[in-house]
Design brief:
The protein has 103 residues and is of the alpha+beta class. The chain contains 2 helices and 5 strands, in the order βαββαββ. Strand 2 and strand 3 form a beta hairpin.
């Protein structure tokens, strides 16, 4: 199984709005793809920023590609991300794992 991890952060004033946006975009989008085994979000506050960590679990690399495309190492972004002043890591990481664990 593969876990795909992403990180981004927004100014704290956008925390609640971005949390809802992430649920409606990245989380629901990934869960709608065949081969997805789950998606978990963790939030951490640091100064004036809220960091979001998203871990999605997949049966195999083909399922990851069905979600992210052939350039699966590049973060998937959504049209309304900018309204939250999102700073997104441009790259994501895929790791083979043996179990699903929330962040």
């Amino acid at each position: 199984m593969i876990v795909r991890t992403w990180h981004g952060c927004v100014p704290r004033r956008h925390e609640a709005g971005f949390a809802e946006h992430l649920e409606q975009t990245g989380v629901q989008h990934s869960r709608s793809i065949a081969g997805n085994l789950g998606a978990f979000v963790r939030q951490e506050e640091q100064g004036e920023w809220t960091h979001f960590f998203l871990a999605t679990y997949w049966v195999d690399l083909e399922a990851v590609k069905a979600f992210a495309g052939d350039n699966y190492h590049i973060a998937v972004t959504y049209p309304d991300d900018e309204q939250f002043e999102l700073l997104s890591d441009p790259y994501v990481f895929q790791h083979e794992v043996s179990e699903i664990a929330p962040l």
